[in-house]
Amino acid sequence: MQKDREAFISHLTAKKSGQLKKELAAKRKELEQAKNRQAELDNLIAATFEKLATGILTDGQFKQLNGRYLAEQEALKGHISLLETELAGQQDELDSVGNFLAIVDRHLEVPELTPEILREFVHHITVHERDGAYKKKFYTQKIDIHFNYIGTIQ
Questions:
Q1: Any residues with CB less than 8 A from the CB of 121 and at least 6 apart, and which?
Q2: Residues 100, 150: contact at Cβ < 8 Å?
Q3: Model pTM?
Q4: β partners of residue 144
Q5: How far from the centroid of its chain's Cα atoms is residue 113's Cα?
Q6: Could you report the per-residue pLDDT of 69-121, keeping only the tens digit for each?
Q7: Phi/psi at 95 (nearest 5 deg)?
Q8: For residue 93, which of 6, 1, 27 has the smallest C-alpha distance?
Q9: Total Cβ atoms within 10 A of residue 127
Q10: What is the distance between the alpha carbons of residues 106 and 29, in angstroms, rounded to a whole number?
Q11: Where along the chain do its domains lie?
């Protein structure tokens, strides 16, 4: 029983966690780069004010540079907010694998499959329309089982 559990966990985590961890790492790197650029823009904006005050830049040059920096900074704020939301969602998804495994652990020794246990595991079942003509005696029909916390397992 323990070998089956370990095989199931490795199958489940290899698909979900491996892919999610790569995506999380890429998004964290992108978020760090965006935050670094935002700090860089803050410095550039401060530098344009100094150059305006010392007379190095004209009013027109200042407006042009400052406008570009401020526009980029606003776009970065939105991008950073989006990345942080996506990171939180992906972290929740990674945590949900652990929640599903907790249900699996509670029901390792099940003598009988009851409706309550089934409801704990299965969120919903989608039955697709059957393939082929309706006059055929044998046909295939696709059924998707969506589990709680992890979705479908291929």
A1: 103, 107, 147, 148
A2: yes
A3: 0.57
A4: 126
A5: 33
A6: 999 999 999 999 999 998 888 777 767 777 877 887 787 777 888 888 888 88
A7: -65, -30
A8: 27
A9: 9
A10: 37
A11: 2-109
Query: Cα separation of 25 and 29, whole Å?
Result: 6
Amino acid at 10: S
Taking the CA atoms of residue 116, residue 117, residue 119 and residue 125 in that order, the dihedral angle to the nearest 10 degrees is -130
SS3 at position 35: helix
| Residue 126 three-state SS | strand
Angle between helices 2-54 and 59-106 (to 10 degrees): 170
Backbone φ, ψ for residue 60 (5° rounding)? -65, -45
Phi-psi region of 45 (alpha: psi -120 to 50; beta: other; left: phi over 0): alpha
Give the type of residue at 70: L
For the segment 44-69, what is each residue's pLDDT rounded down to a tens digit? 999 998 998 998 989 999 999 999 99
Structure tokens at 123: 């969120």
Please, are residues 152 and 146 in contact by the beta-carbon 8 Å criterion? yes
